[in-house]
Amino acid sequence: MDSIEMTAWFGRVPEWVAGEDLSAGAASGRKLAAAAYLGSRKIVQDLDRYQTEVAQDDTLTDAGKQMQLSRFVRDCQVRLGEIEKHRDTLAAELEKARAAYTPAIAPDDTVNAAIWQRLPDDPMQVEATYRDAIAKQDWRTTNAIESLPSVFPGALSNEKLNTLTKDRIAIEAPEIARSIDVAADYLGLVSSAVQSAQTYVEDVEAELPSPDPNEKSIVGADGLTELSPSQFAEAMG
To answer: Any alpha helices (H) in the chain, and if so which ranges?
Structure first.
């Protein structure tokens, strides 16, 4: 797979992935995100290269080529599983960054209940009310909307609230807002890269024949399925 094709799968490599500028956030987060992103790309590169090598190996029969490629696909899936752990770590870092924020005015249940009674039932109007409250720095109203029970008709989704609260936090705690943005960027980049790699591996796997249910295989210590004696003989031509 050439660079143009890789760009089509993953997009252009962000400058911070290979750069040394750590001003965008903590070095540990950047390095973890860069490693996960580049690791996802490498899985695709390795699988693409291996497909070509196996296809050109005249010592293998067609069945043998399929068997060898099937093993490599499973190896790629194991590698993706490790990268997904990095993604989970970055997701936890994002939640940690969000948890570091404390509202300037603590929520008050009595005040919240009074404001809920005045809120419209349309989520779009509630969103507009929230944005207006941010502009006025009316934190009691933002508190009420953020704590609005999901059973209320005008309640906003968690995804929408996460987007809206970024503007509030940027005013109340700009440094924390920056940390949240960086963590979200890292997680978004890695999640997209992992998904692209998974799609590529699944596409290759889909072209392989289903395993013979009558053929017993041995599972190795690494979790990969070893070839049975007959499969090995076939793979070696």
So the answer is: 3-10, 15-18, 27-55, 62-99, 109-116, 123-136, 139-146, 158-172, 174-206, 229-235
Q: Regarding predicted confidence, which is higher, 22 or 163?
A: 163
Tokens 């750069």 locate to 19
Q: What is the DSSP letter of 58?
A: T
pLDDT at 73: 93
**What is the rounded distance in angstroms from the CA atom of residue 49 to the CA atom of residue 87?**
25
Domain boundary among 123, 143, 172: 172
Q: Write down the pTM of the prediction.
A: 0.71
The pLDDT score that the predictor gives to residue 170 is: 93
- Phi first, then psi, for residue 155 (nearest 5°) are -60, 140
Boundary (domain end) residue, out of 172, 205, 224: 172
CA distances from 212 to 61, 181, 225 (A): 17, 49, 13
